[in-house]
Amino acid sequence: MTRVKLLQGDITTAEVDAIVNAANEVMLGGGGVDGAIHRAAGPALLAACREVPQVSGVRCPTGEARITAAGALKARFVIHTVGPRYGIDANPAQLLADAYRSTYRLALEHGCSRLAIPAISCGVYGYPLDEAARIALGVSLEDEFNSLEMAFYLFGEEIYTIWETVLAEYKAGT
Ligand code: APR
């Protein structure tokens, strides 16, 4: 369980193999953690995103992940993933789980073992925090991802406490 850590803070300060970004399908930046990551990474990240092939404007469909260089961030890569818009996209629970799984599989494919991860879909995309925590931590603790060291960077006291409670439940096997 120690391979999954919860931290309260700004993900752009992480020194890891890959920083995970809560992006949108266009993948050219935005608000929230996406905006923070692009600000900290600098224009090189946006340039790298523009290189990602797009199909009628979509670079990363919801539930999938794409990997780019990390610009000025203290990481080798940024893994951009797109979570569901709660109340808009169908099957949000499945799509949120897919976003985390796609992210972790891409990390493994690129030899990344240390990841910094935000709470995907928990801001602009409006996912209820406790449900999102169960899905995120449930996927994170799957055996397939045992070799990954995951640091969740949670922004604020409320969400940190919710995730801490859910992680404790998983540890207790409840
Ligand atoms: N570090 C860590 N977490 C952060 C940071 C930060 N610097 N800034 C915001 N967060 C948190 C939010 O508080 C929320 O808990 O990241 C979580 C995800 O929220 P959003 O960034 O709004 O992402 P999401 O809900 O997935 O919506 C994605 O928002 O910013 C746009 O371009 C993005 O269109 C996309 C959409």
Automatic annotation (TrEMBL):
Gene3D superfamilies: Leucine Aminopeptidase, subunit E, domain 1
InterPro entries per the UniProt record, alphabetical: Macro_dom, Macro_dom-like
Top-level taxonomic group: Bacteria
Pfam (any one): Macro
Domain Macro: 1-171
Transmembrane segments: none
NCBIfam families cross-referenced by the UniProt entry: PRK00431.1-6
Protein name: O-acetyl-ADP-ribose deacetylase
Organism: Parahaliea maris
Lineage of source species: Bacteria, Pseudomonadati, Pseudomonadota, Gammaproteobacteria, Cellvibrionales
